[in-house]
Amino acid sequence: MIDVDEFATRARGWLAENLPPADPTRDTFFLHAATHPTDEEVLARAATCRELQRRLFDGGFAGICVPPEYGGQGLTPAHQAAFNREIRGYDYPAEIQASTFIPCMAVLLEFGTEEQKLRHIPRMLRGEEIWVQLLSEPGGGSDAAGAVTTATRDGENWVLNGSKVWTTSGWWGDWALCLARTNWDVEKHRGLTVFSVPMSAPGLEIRQVELVNGSKDFCQEFLTDVVVPDTDRIGDVDAGWGVMTRWLYHERTISGGSPYVTGGGNRPNAGPYDIGSLIEAARAFGTLDDSRTRALLGEAQTNVLVLRALVEAVTRKMAGGALPYHAAAMTRLFGGTSNARRAAIATELYGEAGVVWSPDEETAAQVGLGYLTRQAACIGGGTTEMARNVISERLLGMPREQRADTVAFRDVPRGPQAGGSGA
Amino acid sequence: MIDVDEFATRARGWLAENLPPADPTRDTFFLHAATHPTDEEVLARAATCRELQRRLFDGGFAGICVPPEYGGQGLTPAHQAAFNREIRGYDYPAEIQASTFIPCMAVLLEFGTEEQKLRHIPRMLRGEEIWVQLLSEPGGGSDAAGAVTTATRDGENWVLNGSKVWTTSGWWGDWALCLARTNWDVEKHRGLTVFSVPMSAPGLEIRQVELVNGSKDFCQEFLTDVVVPDTDRIGDVDAGWGVMTRWLYHERTISGGSPYVTGGGNRPNAGPYDIGSLIEAARAFGTLDDSRTRALLGEAQTNVLVLRALVEAVTRKMAGGALPYHAAAMTRLFGGTSNARRAAIATELYGEAGVVWSPDEETAAQVGLGYLTRQAACIGGGTTEMARNVISERLLGMPREQRADTVAFRDVPRGPQAGGSGA
Amino acid sequence: MFTQTADQDLLEATTADYLRVTWTPARIRELSRLDSPFDPALWRRGVDLGWTALLVPADSGGGSVSGNGLADLLAVAYQFGRHAAPGPLIGTNVVAAALARWGTKEQHGGPLAELLDGAATAAWGYAPRTGPRSGNGLRAVSSDDGVALTGTVPLVETGTASGYLLLAAADAQGLRSHYLVPRDAPGVRTSPLRGIDLTRRYQSVTLQDATVSAAARVGEPGSADDHDELLLDLTAVLQAAEIVGTMERAFTTTLQWTHDRYSFGRPLGSYQEIKHRMADLRTQLEASAAVTAKAARHVGEGSPDARLWASTAKAYAGQVGPELIQDCVQLHGGIGVTFEHDLHIYLRRATVNAQLFGTPAAFTDRLVSLTETALGGGK
Amino acid sequence: MFTQTADQDLLEATTADYLRVTWTPARIRELSRLDSPFDPALWRRGVDLGWTALLVPADSGGGSVSGNGLADLLAVAYQFGRHAAPGPLIGTNVVAAALARWGTKEQHGGPLAELLDGAATAAWGYAPRTGPRSGNGLRAVSSDDGVALTGTVPLVETGTASGYLLLAAADAQGLRSHYLVPRDAPGVRTSPLRGIDLTRRYQSVTLQDATVSAAARVGEPGSADDHDELLLDLTAVLQAAEIVGTMERAFTTTLQWTHDRYSFGRPLGSYQEIKHRMADLRTQLEASAAVTAKAARHVGEGSPDARLWASTAKAYAGQVGPELIQDCVQLHGGIGVTFEHDLHIYLRRATVNAQLFGTPAAFTDRLVSLTETALGGGK
């Protein structure tokens, strides 16, 4: 196997020849953008991502940790990490790392049949298949295992009915992993099955969801008699929760530690909350030497640095066995709350300028709109409340909450708004 | 009945003749004192309180809202309020308003027999009987109805065994209201009875509890075969919870609204957290014009003013029926948390000076020691957690917590430390 | 939310009825797509309910229903918050109050009457002295033609096209005076701003030798510094009242949600952590309402403590209001950050009210200065 | 709490064993009644475990067990926090580090050797530039007799009677240099201070022509400003480590309490609101440990980011540490504010560490200044 340094050297040369530089002014991440791309712009960018991914594949840098039989390079996480360092400053297909590679490709690698892997993974690595997640449901909230989208067996096929939501990039994805209920007569975790579904399947309608800040990247899907062949089932029937556990694990590696993504993963850049940007704003406002302003700036930056130290420490301790896997919930909690706090700090620093701005004040607009969606940092990818449950029950061993959902799923109380959008 | 203004005029004249001025340097309230009185000093002050109370009685100003047959003046809360305004600036027996008059006298007035009232209330009003509360128990926490101190019937007497704690002024009180369990075979609220007990009763041992700040005003009592005649029972056998409900209600009126106390009740003065004191400190430190310091000062004072507005509004709304009685839990919650926050603010303002001080820096010492006991503001008189339960369940009508104590009390799980001090 | 008289209840109820029908959340979302959502006819119908009369004495054409016009207006502003209704309610009332107190008879007969019958709206061109939105300040040069005003005003709310601006300008001696400037006066140029409120729109204003008659001055020469402080008190109380309205609406919506929404087979509201948060939020709501009502009473009566209470109300409600609504968003989960849900309408309104016309931090500092003065050591 | 080498684990374990037996909570409560709780024999036995050697290179008589002495000392300080053990651990180590780095051969042979074998302890007389404890600063006047020091040092920790003080004094040109001053030097007068820590005692120091030999200077003339910053980094990291120890002890105690204590027939820990608070506290504990360990690595290695991480560690742990313990007190109820309970001894230690040698706010400001500099726009 090629040694890591040599690999890095080779990558450095190849990148300089083959990838364009990143455009620092382009903010690909919906949470901070004050203006949002048109659908045409999104599709154009998706095409670019496919093309960039294809270049990586052709250059021998796609799927660095993926076995060669599926089109990968068969190298180690250390090689991927080295490549991720080298690729800084280049444009790369950031928008398809999640969810195509994590969690979807990672799940396929673990649970797919040989046929499924051979069919999909090379196409993923060549940028030909973009995958999304049909996971959350309108009535579901934090309870992934409470899915009510139903798959009914029909000979060699399954027929899916229900609704999914919070599908990032849903409207321009090619394929999806989809969690569905295949048995209502057992406890909720024991009646789930995972399928792969083409997003173009008949009966699958996609609607873009507009967020408070104008973003339309999330989608809601309505499944009406969508037919899926049994050969597209991922894992055993009614064994979907086992798949889900790993699915959710891989999804969480977005904040670091996945061997399957190129670049830093789709981590949002700091945008208007970056300390440099905040300091610059305070200087422009003439408040930089004000001690209250400095206390806020320092708090914002303390949050960033402590989070960095925490992620490193928890990752190290989990790797060494000093902390169990559930300890990752601490980084999720700290990350969410500290992110939300930074949005509040920015709003406080900007004051009047953060709620009303002139058309050329792009950063102020980002602060204003960012404040409106700040709780997304504590909701998306599992709420901070769920993280607190995990920490207290799994890490600290405190008593589990009383549950009313351990009976057959069909008898679980679902409340007056069950299945509805709840709005 | 004498008209309120006339009564106030009469009081004004009488006070000028008969009561000494208050000594503003004397802090009678343990929470803020950095140095604590010796036992001798406490007893001397108690004697002064008795003497002052006697003067009030002789002057016709004791028990303003108490019926004349029990030694009171038979007037209205408006008269009491007018008197409380007039007495500002005079020394008055602040230390025996609570618990002698509220809750003890108030409970006797509601639940005592005619004989009990005639026997005790005039003596209370003359300063001859100081009453304390034997209520909390070492293993009890927030659950007043979970008392395990037991009263067993023995002919015309009851025999009490158990332990009580957090008895303010316990070691120099004359009599006590005592809550005891008289029936272990029914649900916890239905097996309680209230008794009056002389603090000098044989078998009643009293130990002063030292707090973190050096205060020794609280006591723990150990009851070993304490004999109480049935004629000292307050209310019916096993009907103690009905008494308790009112007992706790009267106790809470310490923060305003009781017709039975002279002066402002035993409300702690602001001490080192008073905004004037904080501003003076900041000026001495040279930080008064620092914007961070001003933000902290402003937050401290905002807390004070908002609490004042909240108490007034809730009191007014409860009186007018716009809010139920349980709304008072909001003032308890806000009062507790805002008090604790003020202690943190003072510590932040004092910085180095609030943790190490020279012997002559009395206010700094108060800040340092006050920080150590700051949670007392969120614990004493019912924790803020209990207040949140009350607000959510009683005021907002949210679902009640799952309970494990609705069976016969003897079968309620009490955990490994039941009955112990828990330390 | 406030303890008030039967007449105040009636004023609040008619306002609430009108706003509920007129400004549904769906309608507000539609208006957000428009460049100019102000509707003169709808505004006039609101004005007919008394919205602009309350801070103006009866002998100037207005009238209070309780003797304390600000306390009356409190409930109107509260309902504006509950419905995130467009205005311009606060600016028009504040300018009307200024004209009623300090205006000439001519100003009462003309502009004030227009505000009172809804023909025009007004905005107060307040600029903080420091921070990101501190304006350059206007300069006033007197001549035989009148007074020429030059400079920029960072931000005023829009309304009727031919409405009024109350602007402070300094003369050569540095004395600041207020002037009532028609929006369409020559030399007045406005540029649209963007912001987070869906229906309230703001402009920056540039004046270049915008000339008004000497009779456009409001109040004695040099009185603007003092008068600004009073207008700031009025604005702060009304903003706080709107914030309380947004808080109430978000809280009530969320309480219902915790009842209807089930998680793991149990209502969300049966989880103790959720219950305790709701208890905290309910307490903050009550506290915000309490301090705002107290401020309205004091400012409306012109009591010595008026400024202290106005500052406290804005400092407190401005701090906890948006945070309360953010917690409501959190309790809703993902749906709470979608445009089709209503919560953000109230979050936007609360946040704009909190930050404009003096941030909570600025009012906190003001409170400290007032306290210093009251204690005798102030600057 | 930290990821460390086997040698570091051993150092921590022997320290923990010794402290647990020697400084029981009951013993600490007893010592709080004494005027002078320092015990030279007990200190020497601790020093024999290596407590004062870690920041001193082997060729100066010290030695690290991992190559990064500060990372080693981290675990010792952490255990000091867990036991609220008296020292003076931090001051002695910081002065030892100063002597090792900048001291003369004579200073290595004399005072440093005494610190290394436990015969003496030392204190660094740091005075913040602003705020309540800003000292007047010392002045140094050189003559043939040596250097005469005059002025006050607001606060030093006590230790051995004949120990050392490391003090910075400014000469006539305003250049500040460090001097090693014996506590019992003529002209040195101490006054006892009081405070919230039960066993750590502090004094203020007044020097009146306290004359030391010119050889008492530590480091080049005028180097004290720079050197103070490094000593501040070391102190901040060690204080943060002690705070993490107090947090861990309070948290663990409280977790057990929520298991054992029943309320309304259920363990306290079965209430969701309590569970979520414990989750928050556990996360703050882990975060404090993480940032402190990272700071120790960077400062110990002298990396370019050392000062940034040291400031962050003290700012963060100093802020959340005492608050975490206060929440533990709250979860205990009334018993948590009694003298006989142990919680307050950790609260005291955490709070003293947070506030002395630079408050969390001061380090937050320092962090911003460092960031400004790193971004190229700093002052």
In short:
The complex is a heterotetramer, with two copies of chain A (423 residues) and two copies of chain C (379 residues). Chain A is an alpha+beta fold. Chain A folds into three domains: 4-96 and 118-128, Butyryl-Coa Dehydrogenase, subunit A, domain 1; 133-249, Butyryl-CoA Dehydrogenase, subunit A, domain 2 (Beta Barrel); 270-395, Butyryl-CoA Dehydrogenase, subunit A, domain 3 (Up-down Bundle), CATH 1.20.140.
Structure keywords:
heterotetramer; A: 423 residues; alpha+beta; Butyryl-Coa Dehydrogenase, subunit A, domain 1; Butyryl-CoA Dehydrogenase, subunit A, domain 2; Butyryl-CoA Dehydrogenase, subunit A, domain 3; 3 domains; four-stranded mixed β-sheet; four-stranded antiparallel β-sheet; 9 strands; globular; disordered C terminus; C: 379 residues; eight-stranded mixed β-sheet; two-stranded antiparallel ribbon; 52% helix; 16% strand
Summarize the structure in words.
- The complex is a heterotetramer, with two copies of chain A (423 residues) and two copies of chain C (379 residues).
- Chain A is α+β, with helices and mostly antiparallel strands.
- Chain A folds into three domains: 4-96 and 118-128, Butyryl-Coa Dehydrogenase, subunit A, domain 1 (Orthogonal Bundle); 133-249, Butyryl-CoA Dehydrogenase, subunit A, domain 2 (Beta Barrel); 270-395, Butyryl-CoA Dehydrogenase, subunit A, domain 3, CATH 1.20.140.10.
- In chain A, 42% of the residues lie in helices and 13% in strands.
- Chain A has twelve helices and nine strands.
- Chain A has a four-stranded mixed beta sheet with strand order 1-4-5-8. Chain A has a four-stranded antiparallel beta sheet with strand order 2-3-7-6, with no helix packed on it.
- Residues 28-32 and 419-423 of chain A have low confidence and may be disordered.
- In chain C, a hairpin with a 2-residue loop joins strand 10 and strand 11 (266-267).
- The longest helix of chain C has 37 residues, at 224-260.
- Chain C has eleven helices and eleven strands.
- Helix content of chain C is 52%, strand content 16%.
- Chain C has helices at residues 6-22, 25-31, 40-48, 69-83, 89-102, 105-117, 224-260, 272-301, 306-332, 343-355, 360-375, and strands spanning 122-124, 138-143, 146-157, 164-170, 176-182, 188-192, 194-195, 202-212, 217-218, 262-263, 266-267.
- Chain C folds into three domains: 6-121, Acyl-CoA dehydrogenase/oxidase, N-terminal domain (Butyryl-Coa Dehydrogenase, subunit A, domain 1); 123-221, Butyryl-CoA Dehydrogenase, subunit A, domain 2 (Beta Barrel); 225-377, Up-down Bundle (Butyryl-CoA Dehydrogenase, subunit A, domain 3).
- With 379 residues, chain C is of the alpha+beta class.
- Chains in contact: A-B, A-C, A-D, B-C, B-D, C-D.
- The interface between B and D is large, with 64 and 53 residues.
- Strand 9 of chain B pairs antiparallel with strand 7 of chain D.
